[in-house]
Amino acid sequence: MSLAHSWHSDPHFTQRIGWLRASVLGANDGIVSTASLLVGVAAADAARGQVLLAGVAGLVAGAMSMAAGEFVSVSSQADSEKADLDRERRELERNPDLELEELTTIYESRGLDRELALTVAEQLTRHDALSAHARDELGLSDHHLARPIQAAVASALAFAGGASLPLGVAVAAPLSSLSTLVTAASLASLMVLGGVAARTGGAGVLRGSIRVTLWGAVAMALTALVGRAVGSVL
Predict the structure, then answer these.
(1) Looking at the domain assignment, is residue 9 inside a domain?
(2) Which pLDDT tens digit goes with each residue over 120-179?
(3) Who is most buried in 35, 40, 97, 186, counting CB within 10 A?
(4) Considering the domain boundaries, does residue 233 fall inside one?
(5) Measuring CA to CA, which residue among 86, 190, 80, 64 is closest to residue 144?
(6) Cα–Cα–Cα angle for 102, 107, 110, nearest 5°?
(7) What is the tally of structural domains in the chain?
């Protein structure tokens, strides 16, 4: 196998960071928050209709909240990146020699000798000076640039998909065992989600599964305790 072929077939995961983070966060939040809501309301001895109404309201509100939150957050990041690029563009126009020296120094700090670092900096500057500085000085690349709409849509859809799992169990389960079945199904879903997310991102599957499942169990347990306490008072 040639080196060129080996390099082209080498899998990398950084290009998945944007949508993967938003999707995992959305699905995880959808499962945990909706399951916790269902279990908490059921623990208060509510009727099935009330439990399901709370679940549907949680799904809709949560999906919209995730979309809005991701859009605002990632838009702020995108604004900061644009401001940095605009600032760098102005510096390249005003002080091209200083910017060339800055790029050369960066390559020297990474192990190139002075002559080679200067040659590389000059060639990259002639090719696309802004891209070179964005990548090597600011740490920005096409794979890492903020994409607000992508993050918002991924989060909303993932939340709705995650929330539909415990909600579907709540629809089918007998009221007497609703909390138990929703909890079991949700924890199993979280375990699978954690493993898939870890595998997609190139991380350890077992660690990812345990981490997500543990926090989901804690959230549902606390919500059930609150629901039982409030239900006994009301």
Answers:
(1) no
(2) 888 888 888 888 888 887 777 665 566 788 888 888 898 999 999 999 999 998 888 898
(3) 35
(4) no
(5) 80
(6) 130
(7) 1
Please, what's the largest Cα pairwise distance for the chain?
78
Six-digit token pair at 214? 């543990």
In a domain? residue 99: yes
Q: Are 29 and 166 in contact (CB under 8 A)?
A: no
Task: Specify whether the CB–CB gap between 23 and 155 falls below 8 A.
Answer: yes
Judged by DSSP in three states, 146 sits in coil
Residue 148 is predicted with a pLDDT of 83
**Assigned token pair, 41:** 């309301």
In a domain, 126, yes or no: yes
pTM score over 0.85: no
Domain of residue 169 covers 16-228
Q: Are 188 and 3 in contact (CB under 8 A)?
A: no
b/e for 40-67, b at 16 or more Cβ within 10 A? bbbbbebeeeebbebbeebbeebbeebb
- The pLDDT mean for the chain works out to 81
